[in-house]
């Protein structure tokens, strides 16, 4: 058994023990004690183990040698599933509580779990192609630690360390540099997959030397329903030492939307995002990379104090996966009915109307605004026209303040608006749409054609059946 698996199993057994009914009161009403005394130290242990492991594996160059064998093992599992009669759908064997999404897929208990032990960085090419080739369970924390040490970074680097490359491709990923580079899928240059028949394929975008380009465009947002991702190649760019940030308070909805749109269109801004505190108050943040820092500009001065950093800095944040594992059924229901975690992607031209809709339907503040360019490419997500279009991710995370909030009815109303403006809902969040409404939001033409062509219909569930509310708990 892999050491990583052993560590996870030990933690799982302990956490299952603390979930007995007698401790439910502590987990709900005194959760801070449990978080501080157990989850934070355990999060640190996990981080130390995985960072040390990643560093040793990369330095010894053992990952490329082991990768082919690991892929062959996945192919063997798929072929054995086929030989045994293909009785159930397949899915990855990674436990649902390890994902960053707040929900856990029920399908893990009923589908054939294919074990995919692929968590290493395989290659970094800073000369010719300027790419990093990684396995799907590589995290943003791993990528950051390695690339920044050699002066490089990803053009789009989602900030949560536990987000995996596979999740950001099969789901989606965005960051404040997306107004220049697009979503995480748009900085990828190749995918390697094991298909439903156990065969291995590599796919790349359309070019003179493209391979399986249709599959390349269909993979993002497909949630593992076209094949098992086993490696990806991602663009990298030179990094500078610092980011110089500019914070600008703006008042009035019209002024907020105008200023945010203008800053999002300025390519000299490396980073753009906004925080909306009401329909009339916002802060727009822009950043540029630089090699020079101005001293004495800390937003929270004590946060950079050595005493604070050494005594408390290492403790935060706790791992989302561990918080999920220990939340219990009662907390889960409370979150579901009294807490919203949603990212809706809408055209920038619809931002004023969208903010009014968020205000009236859920009334959650602050709201996160992140602009991104959406290229006109085949696949589940693309603009309505034939040209790239500027979109904005509207993120709402918190307790709704509308009277008589009811999760299902309020979210269905919000989803209806997003469909009406040719927007998209991130699939990690609760989805209350029915199947017909889902395929009204997403373009399934290429996806369904490839599922039939590649024999996926009996091998993997349709993406809707993995992300709809009924499929999660």
Brief write-up:
This protein has 473 residues and is an alpha+beta fold.
Polypeptide structure, described:
- With 473 residues, this protein is an alpha+beta fold.
- The chain has 3 domains: 3-62, no CATH class; 75-239, Uridine Diphospho-n-acetylenolpyruvylglucosamine Reductase, domain 3 (2-Layer Sandwich), CATH 3.30.465.10; 242-292 and 327-442, Vanillyl-alcohol Oxidase, Chain A, domain 3 (3-Layer(aba) Sandwich).
- The chain has 17 helices and 16 strands.
- It has helices spanning 3-18, 24-29, 31-60, 62-83, 140-149, 165-170, 178-181, 213-218, 253-265, 306-311, 320-325, 328-338, 351-361, 407-420, 435-441, 445-453, 463-467, and strands at residues 90-92, 112-114, 121-125, 131-134, 152-153, 188-194, 200-203, 228-235, 237-238, 242-251, 271-278, 281-290, 340-347, 367-374, 389-398, 424-425.
- The strands form 4 sheets. A 7-stranded antiparallel β-sheet has the order 10-12-11-14-15-13-16. Strands 3-4-8-6-7 form a 5-stranded antiparallel β-sheet.
């Amino acid at each position: 058994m892999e050491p990583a698996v052993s560590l996870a199993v030990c933690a799982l057994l302990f956490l299952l023990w603390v979930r007995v009914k007698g401790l439910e009161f502590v987990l709900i009403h005194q959760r801070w004690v449990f978080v501080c005394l157990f989850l934070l130290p355990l999060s640190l242990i996990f981080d130390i183990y995985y960072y040390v492991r990643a560093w040793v594996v990369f330095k010894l160059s053992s990952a490329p040698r082991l990768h082919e064998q690991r892929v062959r093992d996945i192919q063997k599992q798929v072929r054995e599933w086929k030989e045994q009669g293909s009785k159930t759908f397949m899915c990855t064997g990674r436990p649902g509580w390890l994902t960053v999404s707040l929900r856990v897929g029920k399908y893990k208990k009923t589908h054939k779990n294919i074990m995919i032990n692929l968590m290493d960085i395989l290659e970094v090419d800073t000369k010719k192609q300027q790419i990093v080739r990684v396995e799907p369970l590589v995290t943003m924390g791993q990528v950051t630690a390695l690339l920044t040490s050699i002066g490089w970074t990803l053009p789009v680097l989602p900030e949560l360390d536990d987000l995996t490359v596979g999740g950001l491709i099969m789901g989606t990923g965005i960051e404040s540099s997306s107004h220049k580079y697009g979503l995480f899928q748009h900085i990828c240059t190749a995918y390697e997959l094991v298909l439903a028949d156990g065969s291995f394929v590599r796919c790349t975008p359309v070019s003179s030397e493209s391979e399986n380009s249709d599959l390349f465009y269909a993979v993002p947002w497909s949630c593992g329903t076209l094949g098992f991702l086993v490696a990806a190649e991602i663009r990298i760019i030179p990094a500078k030492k610092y980011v110089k940030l500019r914070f600008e308070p703006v008042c009035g909805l019209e002024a907020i939307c105008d200023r945010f749109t203008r800053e999002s269109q300025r390519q000299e801004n490396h980073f753009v995002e906004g925080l909306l505190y009401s329909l009339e108050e916002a802060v727009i943040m822009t950043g540029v990379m630089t090699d020079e820092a101005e001293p004495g500009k800390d937003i929270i001065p004590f946060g950079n104090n050595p005493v604070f950093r050494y005594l408390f800095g290492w403790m935060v944040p706790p791992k989302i996966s561990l918080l999920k594992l220990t939340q219990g059924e009662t907390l889960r229901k409370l979150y579901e009915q009294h807490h919203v975690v949603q990212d809706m992607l809408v055209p920038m031209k619809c931002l004023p109307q969208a903010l009014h809709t968020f205000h009236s339907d859920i009334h959650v503040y602050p709201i996160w605004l992140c602009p991104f360019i959406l290229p006109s490419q085949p696949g589940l997500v693309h603009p309505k026209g034939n040209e790239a279009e500027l979109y904005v991710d509207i993120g709402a995370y918190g307790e709704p303040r509308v009277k008589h909030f009811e999760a299902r009815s309020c979210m269905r109303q919000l989803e209806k608006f997003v469909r009406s403006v040719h927007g998209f809902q991130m699939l990690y969040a609760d989805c209350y749409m029915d199947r017909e409404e889902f395929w009204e939001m997403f373009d399934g033409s290429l996806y369904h054609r490839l599922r039939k062509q590649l024999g996926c219909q009996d091998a993997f569930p349709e993406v809707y059946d993995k992300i709809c509310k009924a499929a999660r708990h």
